[in-house]
Amino acid sequence: MITLLQIAGSLGLFLFGMRTMSNGMQRAAGDRLQAILSYMTGHRLTAVATGLLLTVLVQSSSASTVMVVSFVNASLLSLTQAVGVIMGANIGTTLTGWLVASVGLDVNVTAAALPAIGVGAVLVFSRKLRRTPHGEALIGFGIIFLGLSFLRDSVPDVSDYPQVLEYFTLFGGYGALSVLLFVLAGGVLTVLVQSSSAAIAITLTAAFAGWIDYPSAAAVILGENLGTTITANVAAIGGTLSARRAARAHLVFNAIGVFWMVAVFPLALALVDWIMPGSPYSIQGIHSALPAHLAMFHTLFNVTNTSLCIGFVPRLVRLVNRAVPGTDDEREIGSYRLPIVGEEVHQSPEFYLVEVRSEIAKLGALAEKMFARLHGVFVADEAEADRVVAILEREERFTDEMRDQLTEFLASFSMESLTKRGATDVAAMLRVVDELESVADSCFNLGLLAQRRARRKLQVDPQALRGLSEYFELVSSFLAFIREHLNERVTAEEFRAARALEERVDNERNRLKKAARKRLQGGGNVRTELLLIDMIAHLEHIGDYALNIAQSLAPPPARNSAGGAGKRRVRFGRGGHER
After folding, report:
1. Count H helices, E strands: the chain?
2. Same domain, yes or no, for 544 and 503?
3. Are 213 and 74 in the same domain?
4. Do 412 and 346 touch, CB atoms closer than 8 A?
5. Is pLDDT above 80 for 555?
6. Do residue 383 and residue 240 come from a single domain?
7. Which residue has the higher pLDDT, 569 or 482?
8. Would you call 102 helix, strand, or coil by DSSP?
9. Number of domains present in the structure of the chain
10. Contacts with 244 (C-beta within 8 Å, 6 or more apart), sequence order
């Protein structure tokens, strides 16, 4: 039991080091992380390179594959593009084996680990150097090798357990069947530890300690490539059809590779032995040839499998489409679900901000669509007004769900895990989401006011109606301006343009209200004029919300140069009453 706990603790230290190094590398890369995602839509080879780089930065093929599935779920990547990225992620995950083999399991790894941690600590705690992310990456690097050192020491000497060793050797004399048994064992091991990196570290350590021989360890590594696909397939459950297909493509791709590799297994081992110096069959503990041979086998497998399959990506996509049939409109209408899958999100928050921006753009497009529905409803009959209000009510509830889920997701990020730019973006996104939902609320309330006019058969003065229509077009142009800038920064010049638009909205509100008061003094219908004033107030507040969004998207210098803060927020409940 003590030995098992020591092994578990060593793995925990190893995984903690992987996460710390990953977080440090991502924060050090900063805004360049999100630029990486733009290359995913390029050529197949570019997609493979992107997947490789993504996995190196995230330090987990499972996390990077789940991320890709999530991007497909949000329609940021097509299935064809996702397959290329997944292929690259498989190559990227071979880094763990080389990380172990580069230092070796038979040397004092603390000789490299402790200096790395020491230098990293100086970078983390020094305010003058301002290199905290780089320090975290170094500390994580050191912790990884400390974990490996403890793992090596925790695995008992095989010579002390001859009966157990003899039991293991019983599975090694059945040719291809033995290979399949160890492939299965590797898959189960990866599912149990939920990390292909940890599974590879265990395999290399066990092989180095003599518990399993070189061919068996290679077969286990093949199984680990299959086991790592389970995480993405579980994460895709409940996602869109494309997300489920992307996860299945990962499984099919790896299964194809394992199938042909098992068929040429002895030849593959001979090729690795020819490429790598030293003999992997020597007595354990003499040198580090065995980990290096296994790392090369892992790399050779993934690089060759990608090279063979990259030309057949369209056929692979067609195969997956047949295996997971259906249409893309299967998602339930009327309810929203944030298309971000998996639990690895907070390990790589910077990458997921791209996806959140995409969802915010959808929220902005929906709010603008709701506003466009109001065109002509102010003079519609009761049946038409009822129809529009019913649609607006469903859409308004949908925007409520979007706001709630996006806000909860963004608020769950720890500001310490983000770059300075990322933390600023999250704060801006939180406000933008809230303001867009307020626009949707006002659209629904405008629909209710139009419905009230139609039901009470109130007649609107033609001149007042003309003025209201022009005001509607002015606010509509402001919303279009905001939608165009939702995914980018607003410059000082653009923010001044937004301020000018909002001032026009305010001036037009004052003119229309003054005209309504004149009509009241001239004997106009009180109910009609008060209802028009309510409509004008809602349109003006949509302008306020739009200005607040522009302010959130503008950097502080631009805000200050354009005249300071946005407008105060006034929230309206259902029915149009201020609250």
Report:
1. 24, 0
2. yes
3. yes
4. yes
5. no
6. no
7. 482
8. helix
9. 2
10. 236, 237, 324
502 and 546 Cβ atoms separated by less than 8 Å: yes
Q: Is residue 332 part of a domain?
A: no
Q: Which residues of 478-504 are buried (b: 16+ CB within 10 A; e: fewer)?
A: bbebbbebbeeebbeebbbebbebbeb
Half-sphere exposure for 426 (CA within 13 Å, toward CB) = 22
Task: Tell whether the torsion through CA atoms of 171, 176, 182 and 187 is positive or negative.
Answer: negative
The predicted-structure confidence for 506-530, as pLDDT tens digits, reads as follows: 999 999 889 888 888 888 788 888 8
User: Which amino acid, one-letter code, is at 419?
Assistant: T
Can you tell me whether residue 213 is helix, strand or coil? coil
Say whether both 296 and 443 belong to one domain: no
How far is the C-alpha of 399 from the C-alpha of 364, rounded, in Å?
10
Task: Reduce the DSSP state of residue 566 to 3 states and report it.
Answer: coil
d(Cα 314, Cα 297) in Å, to the nearest integer? 28
| Residue bearing tokens 């497909």 | 72
Query: What six digits make up the tokens of 43?
Result: 């050529």
Q: Answer with the one of 323, 338, 373 that is the final residue of a domain.
A: 323
d(CA 438, CA 407): 14
User: Do residues 215 and 269 lie in contact, with contact meaning Cβ atoms separated by under 8 Å?
Assistant: yes
pLDDT above 60 (res 33):
no
- Give SS3 for 423: helix
Question: What is the token pair recorded at 246?
Answer: 């992307």
CA angle (455, 458, 461) in 5-degree steps: 150
Residue 51 in any domain: the answer is: yes
SS (H, E, C) 117-148: HHHHHHHHHCCCCCCHHHHHHHHHHHHHHHHH
Question: Is the residue at 333 inside a domain?
Answer: no
Looking at the structure, tell me whether residues 298 and 368 fall in a common domain.
no
Cβ-contact 73, 243 below 8 angstroms: yes
CA 508/CA 558 separation, integer angstroms: 26
Mapped onto helix, strand or coil, the DSSP state of residue 572 is strand
Residue from 116, 115, 109 nearest 137 by CA = 116
Contacts of 44-49 spanning 24+ positions with Cβ under 8 A:
44/84, 44/310, 44/313, 45/84, 45/310, 46/84, 47/81, 47/83, 47/84, 47/85, 47/87, 47/88, 48/84, 48/85, 48/87, 48/88, 48/91, 48/306, 48/310, 49/88
- Residue owning tokens 């930065």: 57
Residue range of the domain that includes 523: 348-561
User: Tens of pLDDT along 108-121?
Assistant: 556 667 888 888 88
- Both structure tokens of 511: 């003119």
Q: Is residue 328 part of a domain?
A: no
The pTM score is 0.68
First to last CA, the chain: 62
CB proximity list for 412: less than 8 A, separation 6 or greater: 346
For residues 355 and 394, state if they share a domain: yes
**Quick check: 24 and 348 in contact, CB under 8 A?**
no
pLDDT tens-digit series, residues 209-255: 777 788 888 888 888 888 888 877 776 776 677 778 888 888 898 89
76 and 35 belong to one structural domain: yes
CA 509/CA 486 separation, integer angstroms: 26
CATH of the domain at 461: 1.20.58.220
Q: Are 22 and 153 contained in the same domain? A: yes
Two tokens, residue 21: 């190094």
Residue with tokens 């048994």: 181
Residue whose pair of structure tokens reads 């004092």 in the numeric block: 108
